[in-house]
C-alpha cells in the first residue's frame, strides 16, 4: 500500500511540474530561463553595436563631404583615352585625368601640361577621348561629363568648350579638312560640330547603346555629286 503524500512530497512534485529541479528553492530561475536571458542580452548587445557602427559610418561620410579633390600628381596617362601625336610627330598627347600631358618623344619627358580652367561647383571631369585634326595642332578632348574642349598645341590655349552630350564622350573624330568634328557618347547620340563656327550642326539619334566609334567618309569631287560634289559623311557605330 502506497504511503500517504506528505507536504514535502507535494512541494517537490510542484517544483518538478513547473520546470524547476527538485533541489531548487522556490522562485529560482531554471537553466532554460537563464539561457533565454543570456540570448536576449547578447541580441540586444549586437543591435546596439550595429546601430553604433551605422552612426559612426554616417558621421564619417559627412566628414568626407567637407573635402574635395584639389589636385593629383604623378599621373602619366589615363587608360580611357588613346594618345595622339602632334602635327610634327615630335610630341605625344595623352590624357592624365582632367588634363592633357604633352610628352617630348625624343627626350622622354613631359614638355607641357594642359590644364583646363577651374569650374564653379564640382571637380573638373576626366578626359575620356582625344582627337587631332590632320595637318594642324588642333586637339579635341572629350570628357566624362559630355563636354568637348578644343586645345591649340602651339601655345596651349583653349577658348572653345562644346556641350552636346548628357554623359561621357566615347567617340571623337575630325574630318580630313579639320573643319568638322563628330562626337558620340554614352547617351547613344552622335553630334556633328562645325569647328569654325564653334556650334553643333546636327544630332543623330537611333543607336540602342553607347557609340563606340565614329568616322567621316570623304567623297571625291565629281563622283556621285557632280563637279561640285565633294564632301564628308559621318558614320558611327
Describe this structure in words.
With 237 residues, this protein is an alpha+beta fold. The protein has 2 helices and 14 strands. The strands form 4 sheets. Strands 1-2-3-4 form a 4-stranded antiparallel beta sheet, with no helix packed on it. A hairpin with a 5-residue loop joins strand 1 and strand 2 (91-96). Residues 11-22 and 222-229 have low confidence and may be disordered.
What's the average pLDDT?
80
Anisotropy-based shape: elongated
**Class per helix and strand makeup:** alpha+beta
Q: What is the beta-strand fraction?
A: 25-35%
Q: Trace the largest sheet across and list its strands.
A: 1-2-3-4
N-to-C order of helices and strands: HHEEEEEEEEEEEEEE
Rg for CA atoms: 37 Å
Give the number of DSSP strands: 14
**SS element count, helices:** 2
CA(first)-CA(last) distance: 104 Å
Low-confidence stretches: 11-22, 222-229
| Estimated helix fraction | 10-25%
Major sheet, described briefly? 4 strands, antiparallel
Give a concise summary:
The protein is built from two helices and 14 strands; from the N terminus they run H-H-E-E-E-E-E-E-E-E-E-E-E-E-E-E.
Task: Give keywords.
about 240 residues, alpha+beta, 2 helices
List the helices and strands and how they pair.
Elements: H1 7-18, H2 31-64, E1 84-85, E2 91-96, E3 99-104, E4 109-114, E5 127-132, E6 138-143, E7 147-152, E8 157-163, E9 169-174, E10 180-185, E11 190-194, E12 199-204, E13 214-219, E14 231-236
